[in-house]
Design goal:
Layout (H helix, E strand, L loop, with lengths): L7 E5 L16 H13 L6 E4 L4 E4 L5 E6 L7 H17 L3 E5 L6 H11 L4 E6 L20 H8 L9 E3 L7 H10 L2 E3 L1 H20 L4 E7 L21 H11 L5 E5 L10 H18 L2
Helix pairs in contact: 1-8, 2-3, 3-4, 6-7, 7-8
Bound molecules: manganese (II) ion.
Length: 295
């Protein structure tokens, strides 16, 4: 079970300097996701909101979802930006809150997990929704801290990170043979998109809870490209064969009570159509906060 929390903090990170593959543009996501959130927030009355999905009225008080503004990013300095992101996440956790990082591309995975790691004692595990493995060690054009290396940096830089209690969900298509060997050595559980789509969201969540049960703290990182491009075209890269928007929302809602931090990355308004992906990301954020508040 997750640490006690008084509510969720939105931390925007308008940064896409780590987008070394695919399309840049995720720097515009925090603003578009906030704009989409207003659609959900207008349904709050007298500290309550009506969940049609659950067919009941749920609590939503002023502490449930607090926008703490953007990290002051440094556009030309990836390392400074990820340091500032970690610091904001750690501040939120230390205050007894649950951080929700709204990226930004997926280089923010590593500083988000590190922020939790630095604010807590005990082990830290990762629930990683992504089409991609993010296990790249280093290469000439991407460096060591790009949006392809977040999981690898958690493994080799965070001394209480437990890969054996971590799980990747929705990964698919093809990758480097060396990536397969790295995953096997690290001992991360893989729940690929084919299996996820066979078993469905509820059974997948049970497997995720089993995999992470031994960890003291858990971070949920959600790259929007885990969702099929048909449902989420506004992403940094397109990998066909992913989950639906319904499955994504259900997974986040069911997992929120069990985790200590959340990040939504790779939403790219430059690739989006009528804000449909920013709107989906906003629903992930809103569902997470409501589920956390009413756990
Ligand atoms: Mn990805």
């Amino acid at each position: 079970m997750a640490r006690p929390s008084t509510g969720c903090d939105v931390i925007g990170v308008p940064f896409d300097g780590g987008a070394t593959l695919g399309w840049p543009g995720a720097r515009y996501a925090p603003d578009r996701v906030r704009s989409a959130l207003s659609w959900m927030l207008m349904r709050v009355e007298s500290d309550e909101v009506y969940s049609i999905d659950e067919d009941r009225i749920l609590a939503f008080d002023a502490d449930t979802l607090v926008d703490t503004g953007d990290v002051q990013v440094v556009r030309h300095d990836l390392m400074e930006t990820i340091d500032r992101t970690s610091a904001r996440v750690a501040t939120s956790v230390s205050a007894g809150r649950t951080p929700i990082v709204v990226g930004g591309e997926d280089s923010l995975l590593f500083p988000s997990v590190r922020g939790l790691h630095d604010a807590v004692t005990g082990s830290v595990a990762l629930i990683h929704f992504d089409a991609h493995l993010d296990i790249m060690d280093e290469n000439e054009t991407q460096g060591r801290f790009s949006h392809s290396s977040g999981v690898r940096r958690c493994i080799d830089q965070l001394d209480r990170f437990h890969a054996e209690n971590s799980i990747q969900i929705g990964v698919r298509n093809f990758n480097y043979p060396s990536s397969k060997r790295t995953l096997d050595t690290a001992g991360i559980t893989e729940l690929n998109a084919r299996t996820f789509l066979d078993i469905g969201a509820e059974a997948a969540v049970e497997r995720i809870k089993d995999a992470t049960r031994g960890a003291d703290n858990v971070f949920l990182s959600f790259d929007i490209d885990v969702i099929d491009p048909a449902h989420a075209p506004g992403a940094g890269a397109h990998e066909p064969g992913g989950m639906t928007s319904r499955q994504a929302i259900d997974c986040v809602r069911m997992l929120a009570p069990h985790v200590d931090g959340f990040a939504v990355t790779e939403v790219n308004p430059m690739m989006d159509h009528k804000d449909m992906t920013s709107t989906l990301a906003a629903y992930l954020v809103f569902n997470f906060a409501v589920a956390k508040r009413n756990a």
